Amino acid sequence: MKALTVTLLAALTLPQPSALQLNADWAVVLPADYWPSNMYKWCSREAPGRRGYWAPDSETIGPLEVALPLALQRALKQQIKDSSRRPAPADYYRQYIGIRIGRRQVVYINGFHKSYVEQLRPGFADYWRTRVVNVCDGGSMFFGAEYDPGTRQVTNIRFNGSG
């Protein structure tokens, strides 16, 4: 099944500094049933428990893309004290998968730094649009988070381990 490219309406995007302005071309919504059975356990970070899937639409993803940059910026500041070494939220690609956690519908955010995509072999640079990216280690270059459409909050940001 083909992943849907996230299309954001300009009206949903609040003015933000460029470091917080996400690139809409760097985000996809993976199909509702895409989460592979082995993805309940990520290589280097805790994954959310899930009991099913759903398909987030643009009305869900628009506010998520507004909330994510600030939440990610805060998490990166806690993770990396040296601001000269800290990536900007705008430097991350994102995969969105609608999952159910108990009775709640959340969007799981799988994020990875642009340097990961830039180092891929030609011909593989777009594979992230159709397959879940699961990389071991990598520290703050890779993260997972949850977005609750009801509260419009991004929570549980977890970076990969390192070493």
Which percent range fits the helix content? 10-25%
Low-confidence stretches: 1-16
Largest sheet: 7 strands, mixed
From N to C, what is the helix and strand string? EEEHEEHEE
Helical run tally: 2
Helix-strand category: alpha+beta
Ends apart, CA distance between termini: 35 Å
How many structural domains does the protein architecture include? 1
Mean pLDDT: 83
Note the overall shape.
globular
What radius of gyration results from the CA coordinates? 15 Å
Fraction in beta strands: 25-35%
Q: Can you walk me through this structure?
A:
The protein has 163 residues and is an alpha+beta fold. It has one domain (16-159). Helices cover 17% and strands 26% of the residues. It contains 2 helices and 7 strands, in the order βββαββαββ. Strands 1, 2, 3, 4, 5, 6 and 7 form a 7-stranded mixed β-sheet that branches. The longest helix is centred in the middle third of the chain and has 22 residues, at 58-79. It starts with a strand and ends with a strand. The model is unreliable at 1-16 (pLDDT under 50).
Set out the fold topology.
Blueprint: E1 4-5, E2 27-29, E3 52-54, H1 58-79, E4 92-101, E5 104-113, H2 114-118, E6 142-148, E7 153-159
Parallel strand pairs: 2-4
Antiparallel strand pairs: 1-2, 3-4, 4-5, 5-6, 6-7
Which terms summarize this structure?
single chain; alpha+beta; globular; seven-stranded mixed sheet; 2 helices; 163 residues; disordered N terminus
